[in-house]
């Protein structure tokens, strides 16, 4: 395939591939760059360079345009191109990357991030979840057949869980590995996997792709949460099955998250920013110090670890952990272990859950700044909780108000993730 040359609009500090001198130093649209291999050349140097494009350093991540087979479909008065198949290029170790994100995420930084990757990759590889759902986005993986691929998701913990659930639901083989650009508020899974607590405002997509290329594939336990409502006074609730990757909690921390989400979904919520969101969390946490809506939760809760009932102190929340990060980076299971001697280590792929309890909203604040430690209940391969009164719950940061029920958490399978081992 020949170079696809574009005149002007070169990257900052562009260097000519031929003479190694700086390009685009004169006013106007001068010099050229290839949108596939990203090489820049002077007008006078262009003829020296070979006409054939090798797709540059990220060749094995790009889906070349010649590999796309499309068909025309007419909808009303408009014609639209639809992707029918992907022809595998004869490139050893080809592992294309699919970038998935929502342009409205991350204080609307998602739009900028998607644009950066459209410039570097085939624009068709970059999917906006504001326009297409995850099933449509992951259609790429099905069309690639037996070719392994990587999915780079730009979003928060909720978006990541949504995508991982879709991958499992579609039964994709081979299972795509997932890397993360954190655009949420807490970004707990991103922290654990080394992708950082937040995205860089001046993010370089080249650097991100280099990190993905060097990343280590790891497994992440996927847990099934089956909720069976209590039936009383003729009430028949709806059975639900959810999937959990980070943590599930019932009590005061879920109540704070629920209050925040209700505010964020309000039509009066006009200002979205990560710092502002954290201030809202602080306000709602302070509110629970006074109101204590989850007071004496231990009297309305029964916890079973591997079918063994455990005794609870006076608490306001129970947290079931799969990863060593809760509420924007707090490692609950590890806190205070230096004073208690040996505590079994936590691992994201060991098929075990860690269960802790929180005493109050004020206790949550102390944990955030490292001035206290949680009440460690134990580790288990399965957890069952009987909720005897209505209370707030959350799974991976997605809260709701739950009526009395019994929910069981059991191991389902594992998701394939990429862990960044380089310094952020």
UniProtKB/TrEMBL annotation:
Q: What are the Phorbol-ester/DAG-type domain coordinates in residue numbering?
A: 2-53
Q: Do you know which Pfam families this protein is assigned to?
A: DAGK_acc, DAGK_cat
Q: Which UniProt keywords apply?
A: ATP-binding, Kinase, Metal-binding, Nucleotide-binding, Repeat, Transferase, Zinc
Q: Which GO terms describe its cellular component?
A: membrane
- Any stretches that span the bilayer, and where are they? none
> Which EC main class describes this enzyme?
transferase
User: Recorded GO terms, molecular function?
Assistant: ATP binding; ATP-dependent diacylglycerol kinase activity; metal ion binding
Can you give the residue ranges of the DAGKc domain?
92-229
Indicate whether Transferase appears among the record's keywords. yes
EC number(s) on record?
A: 2.7.1.107
Task: Please name the CDD domains in this protein's record.
Answer: C1_DGKepsilon_typeIII_rpt2
Q: Extract the InterPro entries matched here.
A: ATP-NAD_kinase_N, C1-like_sf, DGK, Diacylglycerol_kin_accessory, Diacylglycerol_kinase_cat_dom, NAD/diacylglycerol_kinase_sf, PKC_DAG/PE
Gene3D superfamilies xrefs: 2.60.200.40, 3.30.60.20, Probable inorganic polyphosphate/atp-NAD kinase, domain 1
What catalytic activity does the UniProt entry give for this protein? a 1,2-diacyl-sn-glycerol + ATP = a 1,2-diacyl-sn-glycero-3-phosphate + ADP + H(+)
Q: Name one GO biological process term.
A: phospholipase C-activating G protein-coupled receptor signaling pathway
The UniProt record lists the keyword Cell cycle: no
To which protein family does this belong? Belongs to the eukaryotic diacylglycerol kinase family.
The entry's protein name is Diacylglycerol kinase
Species of the source? Harpegnathos saltator (Jerdon's jumping ant)
The organism's taxonomy opens as:
Eukaryota, Metazoa, Ecdysozoa, Arthropoda, Hexapoda
